[in-house]
């Protein structure tokens, strides 16, 4: 993207100059054919290096292109650390989290690694904790106190059912509880949703994801556990594979991203990736100086190539 795109029309000079250079080169070649005594011509006119002449022209054209681009005021995107944000951890506590395919159990591993995730976030970030079950609830309102956050995560215990959609609405409400800035604005929010099962109760998860998009709150989903995970429910062994498709749909609908974690090591890496996502924002930045620097570099190289053509080398 350019702030002055109309200046890009000057790039049409490049093909014109290329055509003129080719024409001049061929015309010079035809004139050279008038001399039949090439030995005499060689003593009168010193032979120039073809590749050096072509290189000098190519570098000059490259300098012209980059300087025109710089003159057109290009815009780039740079990731800048956020000054403040509110991150809501939504952790599944349904009965399927008792599965031991992730050691020592899905829930215990998630609790430990969720606390480690909090250490990766800037200290000024607010953190809230929401439990995901058939009756989702805010276990910790937004706070910068990591001790309270760790205690809230440790206090999570297994409950019945999984209402993913309702949990998203609870998380959005938690973001509104965050302290406002000096100008009265709400800090940017993000939801990190870790779930290992299918939605079994409450409102549609995709409705919750759509509401998150309207609020400009991306949802980063983690499909947690393996396909072979199982738990004993009412005396029966039940398989509890993660619903990866639902997690993908929620992330896509909300403008977030989805991840898969089949082990504690996977979950640790996922949290690290999410930390870098929510910790930075993309900011447009004019890159005129960068392109002008490229143009200057090409111009210096073109000048050196031109000097090389005029110099007499031993």
UniProtKB/TrEMBL annotation:
It comes from the Bacteria. Residues 86-274 form the VWFA domain. The lineage of its organism: Bacteria, Bacillati, Actinomycetota, Actinomycetes, Propionibacteriales. The keyword Nucleotidyltransferase does not apply. Gene3D superfamilies: von Willebrand factor, type A domain. The chain crosses the membrane at residues 7-24, 55-72, 291-311. This is VWA domain-containing protein. Coiled coil: none annotated. PANTHER family: LEUCINE ZIPPER PROTEIN 4, SPORE GERMINATION PROTEIN. InterPro entries: Aerotolerance_reg_N (IPR024163), UPF0353/GerABKA_families (IPR050768), VWF_A (IPR002035), vWFA_dom_sf (IPR036465). Keywords: Cell membrane, Membrane, Transmembrane, Transmembrane helix.
């Amino acid at each position: 993207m350019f702030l002055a795109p109309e200046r890009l029309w000057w790039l049409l000079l490049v093909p014109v100059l290329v055509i003129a250079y080719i024409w001049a080169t061929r015309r010079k070649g035809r004139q050279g054919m008038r001399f039949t005594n090439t030995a005499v011509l060689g003593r009168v006119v010193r032979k120039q290096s073809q590749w050096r002449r072509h290189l000098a022209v190519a570098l000059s054209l490259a300098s012209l292109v980059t300087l025109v681009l710089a003159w057109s005021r290009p815009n780039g995107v740079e990731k800048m650390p956020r000054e403040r944000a509110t991150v809501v951890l939504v952790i599944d506590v349904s009965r399927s989290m008792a599965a031991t395919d992730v050691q020592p159990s899905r829930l215990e591993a998630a609790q430990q690694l969720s606390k480690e995730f909090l250490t990766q976030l800037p200290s000024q970030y607010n953190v809230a904790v929401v439990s995901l079950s058939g009756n989702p609830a805010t276990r910790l309102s937004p706070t910068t106190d990591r001790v309270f956050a760790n205690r809230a995560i440790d206090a999570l215990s297994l409950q019945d059912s999984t209402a993913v959609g309702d949990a998203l609405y609870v998380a959005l409400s938690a973001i509104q509880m965050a302290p406002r800035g000096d100008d009265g604005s709400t800090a940017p929010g993000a939801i990190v949703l870790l779930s290992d099962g299918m939605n079994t109760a409450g409102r549609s998860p995709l409705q919750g994801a759509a509401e998150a998009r309207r609020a400009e709150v991306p949802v980063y989903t983690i499909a947690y556990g393996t396909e072979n995970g199982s738990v004993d429910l009412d005396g029966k062994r039940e398989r509890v594979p993660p619903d990866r498709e639902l997690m993908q749909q929620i992330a896509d609908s909300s403008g977030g991203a989805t991840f898969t974690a089949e082990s504690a090591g996977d979950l640790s890496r996922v949290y690290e990736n999410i930390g870098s996502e929510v910790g930075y924002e993309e900011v447009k930045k004019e890159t005129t100086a960068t392109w002008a620097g490229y143009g200057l570099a090409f111009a210096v190289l073109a000048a050196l190539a031109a000097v090389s053509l005029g110099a007499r080398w031993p």
